[in-house]
Each structure stands twice: as structure tokens, then as C-alpha cells.
Design goal:
Blueprint lengths: L1 H34 L14 E6 L4 E6 L4 E9 L4 E5 L2 E5 L3 E6 L4 E2 L3 E2 L5 E5 L2 E5 L4 E5 L16 E2 L6 E4 L5 E5 L2 E5 L14 E2 L10 E6 L2 E6 L4 E4 L4 E4 L12 E2 L8 E5 L3 E6 L6 E4 L5 E2 L3 E3 L2 E7 L3 E6 L5 E4 L9 E6 L2 E6 L5 E3 L5 E2 L14 E4 L15 E3 L2 E2 L2 E2 L3 E3 L16
Parallel strand pairs: 3-34
Antiparallel strand pairs: 1-2, 2-3, 4-5, 5-6, 6-7, 6-8, 9-10, 10-11, 11-12, 13-14, 14-15, 15-16, 17-18, 18-19, 19-20, 21-22, 22-23, 23-24, 25-27, 26-27, 27-28, 28-29, 30-31, 31-32, 32-33, 35-38, 36-37
């Protein structure tokens, strides 16, 4: 009996100690949880790890796996003036008459969505803005794009008849420039309930459409008024005189692509990459070395990037470091350069040949295929032409082929050419 009683007391002491240890661990974890603020939503950068690029000669769009330095997915497309806009997992293929989302997981696309010819499409965060040439502006979520019809969906804004300039900030705020009036549409949970804030009148802004460019740095709108050698910063339109900074001709200047919040706004002239503080202050120039035709520059992290066709030069200017200025390796005289950005990733793409470079690192040329490694790369053939037009040679019939995603083969995927919307989507009004 004494042994049994002693064992019982030991078990009780052991259990008590165990509970005490667990209680201390729980308190420590709770203390860390209370002390550590965690990540705010703005600190979480959701990206698919890839940047989509174009190869016009081969009739392809492809995804660059930036970490691996190679293409890991391809889609064959036929169409002219094709543009790619992307933000995280949302990727849209655009031309002047249609828009089609790309399913980045399966490497397929949704059916084509007709646009009014000459429309402009912009993407930022979880908002898509569409502006028609007659002055209508729609604000959608990416999920509403497949059911969009210009004739059936009420616009969020309508101008007096001329086309508006539009841009979407990195938080989903939509900015609309209607002549000299800047409209702000703050992000709303329901895109259909988006309402405009108080409009801002920008006096002395050029009214020549080809002289004004609109972009956004985070949720700050920026305008380049080339005619007056002026930047207009923020909703208030604070003026920054570029001529006073000694900035030369702005005839071919390009304002930066819309991007994340930063201290500067970037523009590229024919011979330099220029960074201008949003809070005011002197501009900083990084000479390109020789004149060329600038492409829209970009900001990613603490670095600004510029590239020039004809001269085939690039500039990488990072805070706290001397700017890198060099020739684009292996680019020929006809290179059609474009900076492609997806969240924190940036790639320089020759849209004509499909060559792409990791411009944020050492300008390493992206591996174009897996054939040399014995695995090959499959494609899905998509005909992006309108009904009645002659399809491309690779789009003569429905394509049933294999798609390579992330280095592994997936089962055959069927892509129907000129696929129509399901009957439930025809003429559907977006809620």
C-alpha cells in the first residue's frame, strides 16, 4: 500500500510539473504574439513567381521563372499589337479589340471579351479599369472581366465625349484624367459601388492628349506634361518644373509604369533615366550613354530601371549605389525592348525575338527552352484573331497539346479557338 501511495504521489507531482511547464510555454508564446506586430496586409506580397513576356516572331507569350532563369510555360497566340498586363496571379492579354485573362495555374485562357475598338485597359491590385474612346470608364474586379460587356455594364464614369486617361494604383485606387480634371475612385469592396472623391482641377495642364501621361506611384497619381516641361504630383497636382532641373527635350519621354509606393517618380528621356522626389527636391539623372528611344521605365524595390531601343542600352539605378549603364547583351538593332514587371519581379524583354534578361541581377539571358535538357516544352495554341479573319498557321484547328508548368508535365489541355462565352454569360450584367 505504501508503494502504491508513493507512486500515486509521484504521478501527481509529475502531472503538476507537466501542466506548469505547458503553462509557462503558453505564456511565452502569448508574450511573443502580443509583442510581435506581425505582417500587415501591405507587407504580404502575393506573386506567382513569374513574369510574362512576349515573343512576336514565334507567336508566343511565355512565363519567365525568375528564380530559375528560364521559361516554364508558353501559350501560342496570333494577334497584332498584343499587350500583357500582370499583377500577381492576374494576367491579362490585351489588344485594341479584346481582352482575355490567362489562368496562370493551368496555363489556359478564358474566352475573348470584346472591347470597343481603341479601348485602354489598366490593372492594379485587384482592380481592372477600362476606358473606351468615347469616354466611358468601367471599374471591375478580375473575376468580373469574363462576363464584361460594354453595352450591358453601367460605367463608373463618363466624360464629355473624349477618351480619358486612366491608371490603377497599387492599392486598387483608380485615377481618371478627364481633360484637366483628375478624378479619384478609392478602392471599394464592391467595384460596382465605387464612387468618386472630390475632383481636382489642374490648371495650366496641357490639353493635348499626346503631351500628357498619367501614372501612379503607390496610390499617388503623377502626370507628365511634356508640353510645359512639368510633372504634376499627387491629387493636388503639385508642380515640379523639369526645365529648372536642366532636363532636356521631353518629346519622346516616357513616364514610369504604375508601381508600388516609393519616394521618387521615374521618367526616361531620350538620353537619361530621371528620378524626381515626390516630396519635392532636385531631380537626379543617370545618363544612358547615348540617345535612343526610351521605353516606359519601372521602379521595383529600391531600384529604378530604364531601357532604350535603337541604342540598346539599359540603366539600373539603385539607392546607395552607382548606376549601372551598359549595352543589352545579344540584342540586335531591331530589338523591341519592354520592361515587364510583376510585383517585386522585373525582366527586360525583346518583344520581337522573345529574348529576356534578368535586369535586376546580372543581365543573365533567360533560358528559352528545355529541349537541350531532354524534356521539351509544350504549348497551347490560341487564335487571338477576330471571327472571319485568317487564322495563323498554328491556329488552323482546335489545338489539343501538352502544357509544361513548373518543370513538370501536365495532362493534355484542350484550348478551343474562338471559344464563345457560356450561355449563362451572354449579355450578363455584372452585379
Amino acid at each position: 500500500m505504501l508503494d502504491i501511495a508513493a507512486q500515486t504521489r509521484r504521478r501527481r507531482r509529475t502531472t503538476a510539473v507537466s501542466f506548469a511547464v505547458l503553462a509557462v510555454i503558453a505564456l511565452v508564446i502569448t508574450g511573443f504574439a502580443v509583442k510581435y506586430p506581425g505582417l500587415s496586409p501591405s507587407e504580404v506580397d502575393v506573386s506567382n513567381g513569374g513574369v510574362w513576356v512576349r515573343d512576336e516572331a514565334a507567336g508566343l507569350v511565355a512565363r519567365v521563372n525568375v528564380d530559375a532563369g528560364e521559361l516554364d510555360a508558353r501559350l501560342t497566340v496570333a494577334g497584332e499589337d498584343l499587350e500583357i498586363i500582370q499583377d500577381g496571379y492576374t494576367v491579362l492579354l490585351i489588344d485594341a479589340r479584346w481582352i482575355t485573362p490567362v489562368n496562370t495555374a493551368s496555363v489556359q485562357r478564358d474566352p475573348l471579351v470584346d472591347l470597343t475598338p481603341g479601348s485602354t485597359v489598366r490593372l492594379g491590385h485587384d482592380r481592372v479599369a477600362i476606358a473606351s474612346p468615347e469616354g466611358k470608364v468601367w471599374i471591375l474586379s478580375p473575376g468580373q472581366v469574363p462576363g464584361f460587356s460594354p453595352a450591358e455594364v453601367e460605367p463608373a464614369y463618363t466624360t464629355g465625349g473624349s477618351a480619358a486617361e486612366i491608371v490603377v494604383g497599387s492599392d486598387g485606387t483608380v485615377f481618371v484624367l478627364d481633360g484637366t480634371t483628375l478624378m479619384t475612385f478609392p478602392h471599394a469592396d464592391d467595384p460596382g459601388r465605387t464612387t468618386a472623391a472630390e475632383p481636382a482641377e489642374l490648371d495650366a495642364l496641357s490639353t493635348a492628349a499626346d503631351q500628357v501621361q498619367l501614372s501612379a506611384v503607390g496610390n499617388v497619381p503623377v502626370l507628365l506634361d511634356a508640353e510645359n516641361s512639368m510633372l504634376r504630383l499627387g491629387v493636388s497636382g503639385m508642380e515640379h518644373d523639369l526645365a529648372a532641373d536642366g532636363i532636356g527635350s521631353l518629346d519622346d519621354a516616357e513616364l514610369q509604369q504604375a508601381g508600388p509606393a516609393a519616394d521618387d517618380v521615374v521618367l526616361a528621356t531620350e538620353s537619361a533615366l530621371v528620378r524626381v522626389p515626390l516630396a519635392g527636391g532636385e531631380a537626379r539623372e543617370s545618363a544612358a550613354g547615348a540617345p535612343g528611344t526610351p521605353v516606359p521605365p519601372a521602379q521595383v524595390g529600391s531600384c529604378a530601371y530604364g531601357a532604350w531601343t535603337q541604342s540598346n542600352l539599359y540603366v539600373r539605378a539603385c539607392d546607395g549605389a552607382e548606376a549601372m549603364v551598359a549595352s543589352v547583351p545579344d540584342a540586335d538593332s531591331s530589338a523591341d525592348l519592354a520592361l515587364r514587371v510583376n510585383r517585386g519581379l522585373v525582366v527586360l524583354n525583346d518583344q520581337g525575338s522573345g529574348l529576356s534578361w534578368k535586369i535586376a541581377e546580372d543581365m543573365e539571358l533567360v533560358d528559352e527552352g528545355r529541349e537541350d535538357k531532354g524534356t521539351g516544352t509544350g504549348t497551347v495554341t490560341l487564335d487571338m484573331r477576330q471571327e472571319g479573319e485568317t487564322p495563323g498557321p498554328q491556329a488552323a484547328a482546335d489545338a489539343v497539346t501538352t502544357v509544361q508548368v513548373g518543370g513538370g508535365w501536365k495532362p493534355p489541355v484542350e484550348a478551343h479557338l474562338h471559344a464563345s462565352l457560356p450561355s449563362g454569360h451572354e449579355g450578363r450584367r455584372i452585379p
